[in-house]
Batch of 4 targets.
Target 1
Amino acid sequence: MTDEQDVVRWIFELMVHHLERTDERERAIHRLEVTDQGLEIVAKNGALYRVTVQRIGPPPAGKGEREMKAENAYNDVIQITVSDWNALVEACEAALNFLDYDQRKMSELRLQFPDFPWEKRAQMIKRISDQLRAAIEKIEGDVFEEVEED
């Protein structure tokens, strides 16, 4: 792909190929058209959509398409909003607090119910807690490194 218009044509071809394989009664699209602004789609219900393609950055210097595809396969990036990230961290911290509370309560219940496999349960809770803490520390470290680079 050399430019945005090539990407638009590629998307158009994919959609046409899909529509050709779909029964006409099940198709949601009435018409497709490639324009200078992008791909225009007219739905069967009359709604008009425009798909535009915009390059978000120049390709890395000296890298061919094959190398870029191979590199991107290993560098999956998930982007979420800061508020969603904070909510996720809060949920993990709440889970950790609950696990800590659960361990304290477990030590109280050991005397009342000695036949229960308390050690196995304690090991499982510790493993989950350690994994959650390690994940939060690693991801927060990655986020802070990325912010410092910007």
Target 2
Amino acid sequence: MKNYFKFDELGTNYRREFIGGLTTFLSMAYILILNPITLSLETVKDLPDALRMDHGAVFVATAVAAALGTLLMGLLAKYPIALAPGMGLNAFFAYTVILTMGIPWQTALTGVLFSGIIFVILTLSGVREKIINSIPAELKIAVGSGIGLFITFVGLQNAKIIVSNDAVLVGLGDLRDGNVLLAIIGIVITVILMTRGVNGGIFFGILITGIIGMVTGVVPKPTGLVGPVPSIEPTFGAALEPIFNSPGEVFTLQMLVVILTFLFVDFFDTAGTLVGVAQQAGLMKGNTLPRAGKALLADSSATVVGAVLGTSTTTAYVESSAGVAAGARTGFANIVTAILFLLSLFFYPLLGVITASVTAPALIIVGVLMVSGIGGIDWKKFEIAVPAFFTIISMPLTYSIATGIGIGFIFYPITMLVKGRIKEVHPIMYGFFVVFVLYFIFII
């Protein structure tokens, strides 16, 4: 095992890898709580049960997809970079595809499955790099930042810190309400933990907020500590059903946009995380990432597996940087993280205390982390600032990640053309322009 992962060459040992793997798990364990709540649309009232995914099944799918994806990354690419269903992508899945577009969750899973299969093909063929390189860096940053604002807005809504207002659309909620106060306390606690650099700060923020909620009677106490693993039957294989039972819902322009969005966001989530964490760990060779193909294959394969199990896109997690900071340098840390994800299956009863007020701080802080790269956009160049700004601001204001991407991708060729920088626009960007124009004409 030591030889396979090259412990001596990388200056690591079992103890460092174990601590690194544990730290990574604690840093991203919040997804076990947030993903089932998000995909089941638990915070949305008066919604038909048919539109909701089964909470327990999604929990199992989340844990298993994270474990398998993390294990694949560790064994194939040998990187200490864990995978799990991605924040932002799950919000797009639930709030845009299901809630706004009205697409059944089974068909949405089919979209995730197709995007994963396409990702695998593009990775094996080498086309993936061409598509990524065709999109300007500023728009890549804008997409991540826009999703961050969107997630923060969802968190504020879930906590009822921000509520609807007939006069001005949105306004401040009732700060005297117990659930709102709990969420605010949770935000303060999580901010303190993250500011102090506590590994797993988001996870511990949820934990402490939940305990405070139980002590004050704002949230219910758990029915138990350990319990039987929920059935995955309600979601397992559901992604395959629409292909055979209702192909007319799958092969549409609307679904094409959905699939492209899943694919696009996963592209850049993965690429950015791989490069960033590898640089932190000192694993880059010059300006290249060794075994990049295997890493991307692990990521795309995990998305396919996750879709079949019953969860949104599985992607590389930037929280892996916490594990690297704690000493992880090889894929052995991923084996530790994967085992911990599987063990978490037996602690499902604890999730009963995790209400919207408890998880909202995590959503808000994840949004802060995702917006952190906004400084990489050259705001002094108006032709760049306009599409980037429209991409970012449109996501929370239209409550749609796809709409934000579409608006930005339409304005980019326009501003660059008018500025006389037409040669700098890759032909693929014109293809995106046509796709999104058709999307707004025929779909919205």
Target 3
Amino acid sequence: MGSVAPNIAELDASKFNITRSTNLRDVPLPGSPEELSHSHCTDHMVTVRWTDVNGWETPEIRPYGNLSLPPTASALHYATECFEGMKVYRGYDGKLRLFRPDLNGQRLNNSSQRCSLPGFKYDEVKKLVAKLLQIDGPRWLPEPGSFLYIRPTVIGSGPHLGIQVPKEALLFIIAVPWPDFTKIKKNPQAERPKGLKLYASSPDSIRAWPGGFGYAKLGANYGPSLQAHGKAQALGFDQVLWLYGQDRQVTEAGASNFFIVWHNAAGKLELVTAPLDNELILPGVTRRSVLELVRERLSENFVGKLAPLQAVERTLTIGEIEQASKEGRIVEAFVSGTAYFITPVAMIRNEETDISTLGANGEPAGYASQIKSWLEAIMYGKEQHDWAYTIEEEKQ
């Protein structure tokens, strides 16, 4: 007789074990030190254990608290860890929404398998997040126009030291009050800056490379970059603009995707961002949404005073940006991502050269602002759109 394949359980968000907290945490005020700490989580968390023998176990919602891991856990030794960044929005109609959560679930699944962790049905992730927010959303996100940051994470959690594929893993999801970076001023007395200041990486510092894992959201992408980020901030810059190769290709700005609006050498108005095909950059959910909105709404017709432009995904070098700035062809630049959302870029320092990425009059032209307003309308329910996933809440 042939061997019988083991019954490995899939990730299933339809069943839950729920343990409600009896010691509710204080909800921090907007702008408070607790909110600015990025670490003051909501009352509950989701955990789901996986083993190579049985697959995914029943998800648990339990009081937020520390995890228990053996010192030999794979995540602590071999960087078997990946995560996602999402937000849940309290709409102006009072409803809670996630923005394109299946794209986050799909990317988490891809990242998990890239770092030797188990795969799963990616559309179950949004259901896990929704269940957590059904419980914590009413108390932690009461005000329309506000959001919480959501961090789903997968780690190798078993006690098996040695170079091997993890036999145990843990998926957990936490929710965190998060400051709105687009509204924060470092100096309350100072004039609001016109955009971020980016510090171009040096040739001997590389964030990602072809054949690597720059396209996956792994902790191993971020830890080695933090030192460069700290040095840039010490010099008065907001983020590192990561460059790659002898031709100094523009890849990402910190943990955000980078866009530039310019007139190309032939005079054509374009929105340009790095491509995905070389797998150097993260396929950002906001990045994808920016490109799709521009192609749908801004490729043929004026929007107010904004002229039509073409969205282009291609290799872009810092030399091209510097030349365009010298010739007055830059219209504006911005970054996109879950944390920074849509934020203008004012300048880039490349070695000893400061490159202005503002328009001819020293101001952003308004493309980023328009794209941001379109996205906010979807996220907060002002526009009904299939990118928004509505969460049904428990009655209090």
Target 4
Amino acid sequence: MKTKEIIKRKRFIYVSRLALASIFILIAFSVKAQDNIATKLGYAANAKLLIIHADDLGVSHSENMASIEAIENGSVNSASLMMPTPWVLEVANYAKKNATTHDFGLHLVLSSEWKNYRWGPVSSIEKVPSLINEFGYFHEGCTPTVNVKEVEVELKAQIDRAYSMGFEPTHLDSHMNCLFQSEELIEVYLKMGKLYKLPVLATKQAVPEELLRKYDIQILLEEVLTIMPEEYIKGPEDYYINAIKNLKPGLSTFLIHTAYNNDEMKGMNIDNTEWGNEWRQKDFDFFTSDTCKNILKEENIILVTWRQVKDAFYSN
């Protein structure tokens, strides 16, 4: 397949994933009635709770450093690591050192989407042949024909590697939404949450109700907010300010990407304009700004973390 066709397909998949994520309402199913999540976390029932979450840590040194700075000095309060990526050890060590105060989950990976910057599975390639191309890398986009048993092998390998590094994740989510391509893959994803006693990012629209009940998914988010290309063109700051001002009561999350627009990211993002180096710099700029801090305060937004959610719902 020609490079331009691959890039076009990759962007379509990624945009589709984020378009769906932007409208998904996350719900919780349990075998028994549950309290309002805000009250369970110790807040008023009508409180506006927000997780500001940075994806893709481990993908580059720039992504790591910008995200750590955004956590330490900005408004970002959650992030997730990609275990197969080249720079994951750096941020895993940071997460381990800040295990009691910071919120780091796992961004489970089945794809390797950049043009010249690739990675492969954590497990042995002989064990997961359907997940890789002829060079041993993950496929460029989400591939619905992957072997479900091999997916389970790889996801367990990614999670086990995190624990072997001394890093204990607070939650699980899915890179590029690849784990939501079929009911079989969704079940593997939910199974990982149950096996490791971790909350997972799961949506009513994407997950059959019987699976949510079967795996006792207990996370309730009102909205998943992420900026789309058409909104980015109009101005990221306007989008984020408007989203914060219109945040609904309950628990919501921003999914963002924070990195510096430097030579490392420019090389990594060659031939890519969406969610690339400039985009990620602008995410960093807004979520480390006084504008962001002030608007959160003015709107009485309470920042909470997946760690708090995990402790509230998975402590027993």
